[in-house]
Design brief:
Length: 141
């Protein structure tokens, strides 16, 4: 029996995340959760810790724990928002920005190579995923 599309999509995402976890740890010394937070932060920084948690669909507490580790590692900087003393603003450090840029490029190239090896047209794949994503976003509005 063929697997439902929803299962196949979920399974592929899980497998991709597992592969990314192994590669990020081996080559860059970071976890996938660290990478995901930094790659989400990169285009929107500075951003409040709460808004970052919302972008990731994580709890504020989970993001707080990740940020503590990333700050200690020197990849992010967290400051009190001068306009609102209860908010914390998050930015990447130069080291964090550089790391996430290189790691994202490596993962992107790796995945594109896998698509080619599987005989998938990368342009069509990207277009198809973009259309589905856009539809889902539109339907959420």
């Amino acid at each position: 029996m063929d697997k439902p599309v929803t299962f196949l999509v979920s399974e592929m995402v899980w497998l991709m995340n597992q592969h990314a976890e192994r590669r990020l740890r081996a080559e860059f010394g970071i976890s996938f959760s660290w990478f995901l937070l930094m790659v989400t932060l990169q285009p929107v920084q500075p951003v409040s810790q709460h808004d970052l948690a919302s972008c990731l669909s994580y709890s504020d507490a989970a993001v707080s724990k990740l940020l503590a580790k990333l700050t200690t590692a020197g990849y992010v900087k967290v400051i009190v928002d001068p306009s609102h003393q209860r908010k914390r603003l998050v930015t990447l450090t130069e080291a964090g920005d550089s790391l996430v840029t290189v790691a994202a490029k490596a993962l992107e190239e790796d995945f594109l190579q896998k698509l080619v090896r599987a005989g998938v047209d990368t342009v069509q794949y990207t277009d198809m995923n973009t259309k589905i994503r856009d539809l889902l976003i539109k339907e959420q509005s």
